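Q: May I have one protein plus its fold?
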Amino acid sequence: MQMTPRNSRATPTAAHRLAVENRGNTPMQVTLEATDPDGVLRFEIDHPILRIDPGHTEFAQMQIRSAEPAPAHGSAQQHAFHLQVRSDLSSVPPTGVDGSTVLEPVRRRPRSAWLLLLVPVAALLLVAALQLSRLSGGVTAATPAVTSRVPDTTDLLAVDAARLLGTAGFAIDQGHEPSDTTAAGRVIRSDPAANSTAPRNSVVTIVVSSGKSPVIPPPPKPIPQVVITIDDVTLLNSEHTFGDVYLALYFQLRLPDGRLIDLPHWNRGGAALSEGTAYPMTLSFGRYPAGSTLVITGYTDSNDQNRLPSHERYENYQGQIAFGPLSDASHQGVHHEVSRNDKQNPGFRVTFTITPLASQ
């Protein structure tokens, strides 16, 4: 950042040339802002926003004058000021340069005596002009304000838009908003609108795109849940009544992600465990994902029901039922069975109910 000159005299204005160089390898946009601690100076920068390509230097002009009318008498006063440069790149810290300017008092020439004589003459001429205007019915037209056409800055880079508006005689302000159609850093619109007319030196606000609107993903869909209830179990394919036969059912659930979890065991033991007789269970397994698979394995033992639940030690494997996924509610209350031809190792049948739960 360079400012030439560093020190100046405002008579009544002072001019400084500003130069900002981009020594990096990424385009950047900088904002120029000048302040003075005493608050007595007014700063006007023709290009307060500069876009600088890598290895390039951009320039701006700054005018300084007194914020209040300069006094007619007194001595010159020196005032310090600071010019700050802020980049839009987070990796580039703000920088600045200090300077000073001397405000000179306005020297007014003493009134000559002949000027005093012209005052009454001018007053008479003014009265005569007013009377003539009243008699003729004429109306003096007010001087129209000087206006200019607002340039079209749509889709320009912000720095180029600011330069174009400054050349057309407007002051520049800037705002940002997201846009799905205009690239980040380019102008969406201006206020006043492009090609309209506005007084010279008035403020034109450019609205710059901050990029596309963030995409908010939809909330995840709830996973349907079901409750599994084992209703009853029946021994199959036996030609006689079993005495002292113990039946154990080993329940597992294969979740949608493939994990296999153990569920509570159930056993039915005692004499005369008859073939074809349904033994009620009413065993409920809480709630599980509807995409799961229910796996039921049956075992029998002739003399020791106390081995439960160590199903690996049972003498006779009766078969296995695998039902799933559980999301099909039309299978509620349907019998599912496994049968074996070995009469000493009959199969079994299980009736269970799958109840879908309402989504939370």
User: Anything to note?
Assistant: The first helix runs from residue 113 to 136. The chain has three domains: 2-103, 147-209, 225-356.
